[in-house]
Amino acid sequence: MSPESTPRRFSRRGLLAATSAAGVAAVAGAVAGDATASIFGGERARQVGARRIPFDGRHQAGILAPPAAHGWFAAFDVVPGVTVGQVESLMRTWTRDARLMTAGEPVAGDDSMALGHGPSSLTITVGFGPSLLRKLDAAVQAALTPIPAFPRDQLDRERSDGDIGVLLTADDAIVVAHALRALSRTARGTAAVRWQMSGFNAADGVTVAQGATPRNLMGQVDGTGNPKPSDPEFDARIFADDGPAWMHGGSYLVFRRIRMLLDSWDTLSRERQEQVIGRRKDTGAPLSGGTEFTPFDLDKQNPDGGLAIGPSAHVRQAAPATSGTWILRKGFSYFDGYRADGAPDAGLLFLAFQNDPRHGFTRIQQRLALADELSRFIVHESSALFAVPSGTDPHGYIGQSLFAAL
């Protein structure tokens, strides 16, 4: 055997020396900007951070924005005795600051902990609760009728509702945290945070397939059947163009914190989990056959004569063909540690945009609460409803048409 082919034997000291030298070389390479940067995703990370979603438009950007790695939701209550002018001024300030932050620029007087971070696809979406409209002596549209109670709900009223709801999404948690901090700081004296929750999705580049449907903490693909802007009647189903003028181009947002009973779910076999959902766990394909995006065949039978997608399967009960309605879903997983009983305090921050919750979320949830087998493995713990007004032009501000009419 030649010297070149003889295996080298490293002592522990020699191995440490070799790895230390490699580490120094890696750092030096990174500083020099050579190929080592690709090991750490340097260029990709810069691209993610530089991505910008324009703030202005007919619709508020967070409604149609692509999935983000981080989603935070905060509800604010206005302080007692606040005037219409003060709330309007807050909307002007928030709009100004949101334009800056979504462009990756600092707001006035901000020495930003996000300094050096790009916009990271930040979106800031604001909605008005029925309680705010009443405080402003504004008409409360029928679409803001309170969401009814459902079986198995265990709602915490201190973490529900609110005068103003703010959805913040981005691909960097620092950017989201900073944006919420900036908004809450400028709201002092006019509004204060009532409650806040944060969730996450897969970060860019983590999934093997680019643009793959996210999975929730149950391990299921989540969001396959979401309507797309290119679908017929998408705008009519999601946007409230037949409501008050200030809502034209806007939408109604339902927020729910849904805890998953993961320990109970994990006791089920994979086959049984698939039957509860109505999809294969590995591919997301419906049990009626095909691939993830194959339409459901709700009439297909197995060789034994039973329905391929069972009567109580989640996808059957939630499908538009069954419920007769459509919503645009956004979801973020959350994991807030463990409860006193040892069970995970984890689940889904569920958001649904629609043109009228009475004929959207409420109708679907009434079916799910009564007939969906998945309901045995989840608990709805928080709930809120907001009217998300239309988007802004570069010189306008959030809710401008509403305040002009007051």
Automatic annotation (TrEMBL):
It comes from the Bacteria. Residues 276-297 are annotated as: Disordered. Residues 213-392 form the Dyp-type peroxidase C-terminal domain. SUPFAM superfamilies: Dimeric alpha+beta barrel (SSF54909). GO terms for cellular component: cytosol. GO terms for molecular function: heme binding; metal ion binding; peroxidase activity. Its cofactor is heme b. The keyword Metal-binding applies. Keywords: Heme, Iron, Metal-binding, Oxidoreductase, Peroxidase, Signal. InterPro entries: Dimeric_a/b-barrel (IPR011008), Dyp_perox_C (IPR048328), Dyp_perox_N (IPR048327), Dyp_peroxidase (IPR006314), TAT_signal (IPR006311). NCBIfam families: Dyp_perox_fam. Belongs to the DyP-type peroxidase family. This is Deferrochelatase/peroxidase.
